[in-house]
C-alpha cells in the first residue's frame, strides 16, 4: 500500500468518526432541550403558590421523562456499544442534569434520595456498566450534588412562602447527604470540587434553620403549623 493509500484510508476512519460525533451532538441537543423544559417546569415550585402545585408539576415532569427515554434510546444507536467512554464527554453534562432533575422530582414526591438504579430506570438506561449505555457513578453523584444546591435554595424560598417545617426537613436530608459523601474517597477532581461546594449548601440551610429558631418559628413548624409536605 502506498503512502497516499494509507492516508486515504485514515481519512475514511476520521470521516466516519466525525459522522458519529455529529449524530451524537444532534441527539444531545434534543436531550438538552427536554432537560431545559423539565427544569423550567420544576423551577415553578420556588414561586408563589408553587408548593401547592408540587404533585402536578412532578407528574408533568415524569411525562417529560418519557421523551427523555425515547431520546436516550435513539442516542444509544449512534455509536458502537463498546465505545461508551470514547464518546461519554458528549452527553456527560446533560446526563448529570437529568440525574439532578430526576432526583429533584423524587425528593419533591417523597423527600428521599433516589438511588442510582432508580434514576437509571427513570431515564431508561442501565445501572450496570457491563450492560451497555449506563449511568456512570460519578454522573449520578454530580447530579445529587446539584440537588443539594437546589434544596438550599428551596429552604430559603420555603420561609418566604410561610412553610417553616420544610427547611427543617431539608436540613436533616442535606446533613445525611453530607455524611454519606464523607464516606467516599473521591479521586475525580471535578467531582471533588463539586463536593467541596456541598459545605456551603449545608451552611446556607443551617443559617435558615437558625433564623427560624431565633424567630421562634421552628417551634411553630414542629408543632404542625406550616406548609404541606
TrEMBL record:
Pfam families: Translin. GO terms for molecular function: endonuclease activity; hydrolase activity; metal ion binding; RNA binding; sequence-specific DNA binding; single-stranded DNA binding. GO terms for cellular component: cytoplasm; nucleus. Residues 14-41 form a coiled coil. It is found in: Cytoplasm; Nucleus. InterPro entries: Translin, Translin_C, Translin_fam, Translin_N, Translin_sf. GO terms for biological process: RNA metabolic process. The keyword Cytoplasm applies. Mg(2+) binds at residue 150. It comes from the Eukaryota. Keywords: Coiled coil, Cytoplasm, DNA-binding, Endonuclease, Hydrolase, Magnesium, Metal-binding, Nuclease, Nucleus, RNA-binding. PANTHER family: TRANSLIN AND TRANSLIN ASSOCIATED PROTEIN X (PTHR10741). Belongs to the translin family. DNA-binding protein that specifically recognizes consensus sequences at the breakpoint junctions in chromosomal translocations, mostly involving immunoglobulin (Ig)/T-cell receptor gene segments. Seems to recognize single-stranded DNA ends generated by staggered breaks occurring at recombination hot spots. Ring-shaped heterooctamer of six TSN and two TSNAX subunits, DNA/RNA binding occurs inside the ring. This is Translin. It comes from Crypturellus undulatus.
